[in-house]
Amino acid sequence: MGPLYKFGWFDFGYSLQIAGLVGFFFGFVLERAGFGDARKLTAIFYLRDFAVLKVMFTAIVVCVLGLLYFSLFGWIDLSRVHILPTYIWPQIAGGLILGVGFVMGGYCPTTSIVATVSGKLDGLIFILGMALGSIIFAELYPSIQGFYEAGSMGAVRLPDFLNLSPGVIALLVCLMALGAYWVAEKVEKKFGDPDQLPKGSPKAKKAAAGILVLLGLILAVAYPEGLYSQKALSVPLPAKQKEALTIEKQPAPAEKPKSTPGFKIVEDEGC
Amino acid sequence: MHKRYSNPYVIGVFLGLVLLFSLGGGILSGFAARLARGCTSGQALTGASELALGSWVFMFCIFGGAYAAAYFFRKEWL
């Protein structure tokens, strides 16, 4: 809730309550979408049911458009949104391993929790496995620390990396999602079980696609680049230079800006 | 599975294997989520929404890894 603090509507405690509420609905929606079921989740990897892809891309598109439109209207301050830093090599390796774990165990970390609370034994075992995996990581950490910090690029975002305006990127994300839905439905029709696939009206789908493209186009044309935070624009320094800088700075009395109690921005890595 | 096997012993072995795979998948996922600084929700979904570069790479790598491994676990899910 950090970005909304600027209005003074929330303090830290209140935002925790909202986080609980959001988590409640996140779990509810995941369960209702069938994501507590390993078969439904892994069906995407056998080209039978692309619900996972649809849900993921829809969530991303809504959030991308939401963030950019809200900042356009001045409702949130993007520079206060914590951008996850890029460590390219561990992220590539982590993604590949997580993918294998996903198709092996049938869940991803979030959905295993959904499965467990809906009474699935394999979900519970999966959670135990995750705890074990975390312990193994912690035990191995001294030997893989170098790799864990490899490929650090700072909080770099697609607009900076591809040198395009955020609005254009948003439009591209919309188009990519639409293309993915289209391909997914074609493939589903070929390999999936027609009784279990959702049926939607083609008209509604076309209307939704049109709205999505329109929203993306508006952003691509109208989104002013200055609104995009300065934080990511500063080129991330190589580690050595950074070290040198921090060492130079240290002699100066490092006065931490005292944050007003109750208005702390929580920066964490998520689950 | 219900259609193919009727012998309870075979079903028991199958379920045991599934649970073993669940444990293995959990270990891999837990390790990977720590390595990549987040899981599908905390890193892939959240980061992709912020247009963070690493999160997009991470997300496509999840799909890549899973599709590459899917063949070996087909008996478990199909």
Q: Would you mind describing this structure in some detail?
A:
- The complex is a heterodimer of chains A (271) and B (78).
- Chain A is mainly alpha-helical and 271 residues long.
- In chain A, 61% of the residues lie in helices and 2% in strands.
- Chain A is built from 10 helices and 2 strands.
- Chain A has helices at residues 12-32, 38-42, 51-72, 88-105, 109-117, 121-148, 158-162, 166-191, 202-222, 239-249, and strands spanning 86-87, 152-154.
- A two-stranded antiparallel ribbon of chain A has the order 1-2.
- In chain A, helix 5 runs antiparallel to helix 6 and helix 8 runs antiparallel to helix 9 (202-222).
- Mean pLDDT of chain A is 82; it is low at 231-238 and 244-271.
- Chain B is mainly alpha-helical and 78 residues long.
- Chain B has helices at 8-35, 40-49, 53-70, 74-77.
- In chain B, helix 2 crosses helix 3 (53-70).
- The longest helix of chain B is centred in the first third of the chain and has 28 residues, at 8-35.
- Chain B is elongated.
- Chain B starts with 7 loop residues before the first helix and ends with a helix.
- The mean pLDDT of chain B is 88.
- The interface between A and B is large, with 73 and 57 residues.
Strand order of the largest sheet of chain A: 1-2
Quaternary form? heterodimer
* Element string of chain A (H = helix, E = strand): HHHEHHHEHHHH
Distance between the termini of chain B: 8 Å
Task: Note poorly predicted spans of chain B.
Answer: none
Radius of gyration of chain B: 16 Å
Proportion in helices of chain B: over 70%
Number of helices of chain B: 4
Main beta sheet strand tally, sense and closure of chain A: 2 strands, antiparallel
Give the tally of β-strands of chain B: 0
Which structural class is indicated by helix and strand composition of chain A?
mainly alpha
What's the shape of chain B?
A: elongated
Hey, roughly how much beta strand do the residues of chain A contain? under 5%
Overall pLDDT level of chain A: 82
Radius of gyration of chain A from the CA trace?
Answer: 22 Å
Give the largest interface.
A-B, 73 and 57 residues
